[in-house]
Amino acid sequence: MYEVAVVDTFFATHAIDGEIPHGHTFRVEVAVGGENLKKGEILIDFRSLRSQLREITTKWEGKNLLEQDIWRIGFPSTEAIAAHIFQEMKVAVEDWGLKLLYVTVWEGDDAKVTYYE
What we know:
Blueprint: E1 2-14, E2 22-34, H1 46-57, E3 63-64, H2 78-95, E4 99-108, E5 111-115
Parallel strand pairs: 1-3
Antiparallel strand pairs: 1-2, 2-4, 4-5
C-alpha cells in the first residue's frame, strides 16, 4: 500500500458559537492510498491531487466562512471544514481508483483536526 499526501493553505475568517470572527491561514493535508502504481511508477501525480484540493479551498480564500452557503446550518469549525473537504475530495479520489485516507486541517502550528472514515 502506498500513501501520497499534499499540503496547501488558504486564508479565511471563521467563528464558532459565541466567538468573534477571526482569521487563520488554514493548512490542509489530504492523503490518498492505493496499491497499484500507474504509468511512471506513481500512485497519483501530486499536481492532480493538489489541484483537486484547490478547487475546494479557492472558493473560500480571503472570505468569511460564516457568509458561505454551505455553513447556513452549523458553524465552520475546523472539524466541519475538515469533514466538508473530505466529502468533496472523496468523489474525485474514488473516480481515480484510490482511497481517501484522511484530511487534516491546521488552524495554526499547534492546533489541528483530522477527519477520516
